[in-house]
Amino acid sequence: MNAAPADQIRLLDLQALDVRLTQLAHKRKSLPEHAEITSLEGDLTQHRDLLVAAQTEESDCAREQTKAEQDVDQVRQRAARDQQRLDSGAGMSPKDLENLQHEVASLAKRQGDLEDVVLEVMERREAAQERVTELTGRVSSVQAKVDDAVTRRDAATAEIDAEIAGVTKEREIVAASIPADLIKLYDKLRTQSGGVGAARLYQRRCEGCRLELNITELNEVRAAAADTVVRCENCRRILVRTPESGL
């Protein structure tokens, strides 16, 4: 392939822009905020799960407390009725009175036991409520950190995207000034060679593979016409000659 020396030189400008685009894409992907957000979102999920568990426990305790209080109320009402009957003693035999006294005493003990249950449930519910309050605060705190990290990430991403847009536009201008067949070869080699399709020959060394050309290779390059598109024998990239090539 042949191409004007000036067109070959412009390949180096194009290559520099492509390298910059690759660097910007890597920078965008590797922003520290990405890892920070991932870590914080993991913490947030964990805290939310714990919060849901605490809320469920508090709700269960509330239902249990309501049931226990209802049981106490039923026993209290029954005891009150029995006490009224005992106090009146109307139409009751001594045996009935004795049995009623035993039932009143039994109900008093039952009421005391149930009230202990109510107190125990209330203590568990209070502990669950405190846990809910604590975890709600943690969730809010971590969410605020996530929001801050997302804001910083979005700002950094927007800045990088703006630079990518500028470099892409510049690349379009440079690419438009280079013959299509040369661009086609360059793009093919760039895809095959890790993003570098053209390299400068500097002081007898290919800046693509960093290897110095041997005497035979140098002689072949020296003998090539100025408009010949030379390829590196080692990495097969387009080798662009400049006054600093050392030929």
Automatic annotation (TrEMBL):
Q: What is this protein called?
A: C4-type zinc ribbon domain-containing protein
The question of whether Coiled coil is a record keyword is answered with yes
Tell me the segments the record calls region Disordered: 59-95
Record key words, sorted:
Coiled coil
* Pfam families referenced in this protein's UniProt entry, alphabetically: CT398_CC, Zn_ribbon_9
Which residue spans traverse the membrane?
A: none
Annotated CT398-like coiled coil hairpin domain ranges read: 14-194
Per the database entry, which stretches of residues form a coiled coil? 97-145
Spell out the Basic and acidic residues composition-biased ranges.
60-85
Stretches assigned to the C4-type zinc ribbon domain: 205-239
> Which InterPro entries does the entry link to?
CT398_CC_hairpin (IPR056003), Oxidative_Scav/Glycosyltrans (IPR052376), Zf-RING_7 (IPR003743)
Q: Which organism is it from?
A: Streptomyces triculaminicus
